[in-house]
Write a structure and sequence with these properties.
single chain, alpha+beta, six-stranded antiparallel beta sheet, 29% helix, 17% strand, globular
Length: 183
């Protein structure tokens, strides 16, 4: 039997720290419910809670990738309501408006343009922002400096001094934006 010289590292992804796992949507939905992941055990416990209560339609081997509908069900389970926001209205400097069923966003604006819009950061709300294959939690607090963004790394991302992950996020286009409120 011939041994491979360079065998692949087949470590369990679920045992890694929360920042190294592909759980951005799960982490954002949990943060809306004031649940913060500090260890891999916390993530696994929350993941099993979601599977047990049929909040996500996934198999047992599921890591944590979610759809917008999954995140809405998780928020609803914890007593929160999610409403999709029309990001085109932000470009036109109107108030944040809720998208009517059946209508879609006409333009895809960049995350940087959304975060710098006064209409957006002057509100005092919590949001789930979806970009291409990623999701972040945003909490606005009436000023641009107090606005906080978090992904699965649990690191506060700043607009003024962006790290590598934040620079990459700012260049992307907004796919969906959900406002999260309590029932």
């Amino acid at each position: 039997m011939v041994q491979r010289k360079y065998a692949k590292n087949r470590s369990n992804k679920k045992s890694k720290s929360p920042g190294k796992q592909p759980i951005c949507g799960l982490s954002a939905a949990a943060r809306c419910a004031n649940i913060i992941f500090k260890t891999a055990y916390d993530v696994d416990k929350f993941r099993s809670l979601c599977l047990k209560n049929n909040l996500v339609k996934k198999k047992k081997s599921w890591f944590g990738g979610t759809t917008a509908a999954d995140r809405s069900r998780i928020c609803k389970f914890f007593g929160l309501i999610t409403k999709e926001i029309n990001v085109c209205a932000i470009l036109e400097h109107k108030n944040l408006t809720i998208i009517q069923p059946g209508s879609e966003n006409k333009k895809n604006i960049s995350v940087k343009k959304l975060l710098n819009s006064a209409c957006f950061f002057k509100s005092k709300n919590e949001y789930l922002l979806s970009v291409n294959a990623h999701c972040v939690y945003i909490k606005t607090n009436c000023t641009r400096n107090k606005m906080t963004l978090y992904d699965q790394r649990n690191k506060k991302m700043k607009i003024k001094l962006p790290d590598h992950a934040m620079k990459k996020l700012l260049r992307q286009r907004v796919r969906k934006l959900f406002m999260v409120t309590k029932i």
